[in-house]
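User: Here's a chain of 159 residues. Predict its fold as tokens.
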Amino acid sequence: MKRIGVTGHRSIPPEALAHVQAVMKATLCGHEGAMEALSSLAEGADQLFADIALDCGAALTVVIPSSDYEEGFADPEALACYLRLKGRASQEVRMEYPHSTDEAYYAAGAYIADHCDRLLAVWDGRPARGLGGTGDIVRYARERGKPVTVIWQDGVERG
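Assistant: Prediction complete.
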């Protein structure tokens, strides 16, 4: 079984969204055979990836960073999407952190990188804005020899 994980920005600029969706769909739906998708279901890239992976027939494994993770969703729509996707997951992995901290996010991202065959990174190439951000997880995966596919629209800046 092929295992594909995701790391990515929570906010994807509208001018990059179609490109990100197209590359994710081509990567996930173009794969033959059984596939497992690993995601923390954060708002943005994680939820987009999980939706597309499920549409492409993948089994979804959710990696929950902390016991209070759901409380960190300020946007009710993002929380509803998280709960919907979590309900469709075939497996759930929980990190042993009581609270959503940078360390918890880093641990979840590292878990995904450690347990996938390829990491998709919706990443603008800039350093992480806090421990456990996309840049940190990309660096972590590359240091361990994991193939990383960076998805970003050229010329688009994140706010």
